[in-house]
Specification:
This protein has helices spanning about 1-10, 15-35, 35-55, 60-75, 80-105, 110-135, 140-145. The two termini are about 30 Å apart. The chain is an all-alpha fold and about 150 residues long. Helix 1 packs antiparallel against helix 5 and helix 3 packs across helix 6. It has one domain (about 25-145). The protein is about 85% helix and about 0% strand.
C-alpha cells in the first residue's frame, strides 16, 4: 500500500484507482489474519496478475530496475514514479510468498482450494471493475494482456 500511496503523489490522475486498489490489500490482510482461503487466493492472484502485466506486457518493472541502476551509479533517481514499480513488484512477490505459505501450512482440502480460487476470481473481478470505472487509460493495457 506504501507504493500505491507514493505513486498517487506522483500521478494524481490515478489517486481514486489506487485508493480503491488499496482496499484489495486491506481485505487480503484482514482475511489472511483469519486464515481465510478467500484472502490468500485474493492476495496471490491479484499480485501475480499485476506482476505479470508489468513484467511481460509492459516495461514498468524493467523501467524501475533501470532507475535502481541509475541510483546506484549516480546517487539520483531520475523518475521516482518508475522506481516505485520495483517497490510494488517486490511487495507483490512477498505477498504471493506469504499468502501461499499461510494457505499451504493449513494443508488445504478441495473445498479450501475452491475458496482460494474464488477469492482470486472475486479480487480480479473487483480489480477489473475499478480499472474500468476509474482508470480507463489502462483499458488498452488490459486488452493487450488478454489478447483482445
Amino acid at each position: 500500500m506504501f507504493a500505491l500511496f507514493l505513486s498517487a503523489v506522483f500521478e494524481p490522475s490515478i489517486r481514486v484507482l489506487h485508493a480503491l486498489q488499496a482496499l484489495i490489500y486491506v481485505a487480503v490482510v484482514m482475511l489472511s489474519r483469519r486464515n481465510s482461503p478467500w484472502g490468500y487466493g485474493a492476495g496471490v492472484v491479484v499480485s501475480a496478475f499485476w506482476n505479470y502485466i508489468n513484467l511481460f506486457v509492459n516495461t514498468f518493472i524493467r523501467n524501475g530496475v533501470e532507475q535502481l541502476i541509475g541510483l546506484l551509479q549516480t546517487g539520483r533517481i531520475a523518475r521516482p514514479d518508475q522506481f516505485l514499480a520495483l517497490i510494488a513488484a517486490t511487495g507483490h512477490f512477498v505477498l504471493i510468498a506469504a499468502c501461499l505459505t499461510g494457505f499451504l501450512k493449513n494443508r488445504p482440502n478441495a473445498g479450501e482450494w475452491s475458496k482460494f480460487a474464488g477469492g482470486g476470481v472475486l479480487a480480479m473481478a473487483y480489480f477489473m471493475a475499478i480499472i474500468f470505472l476509474t482508470g480507463p487509460q489502462y483499458i488498452p493495457l488490459l486488452r493487450r494482456t488478454f489478447g483482445l
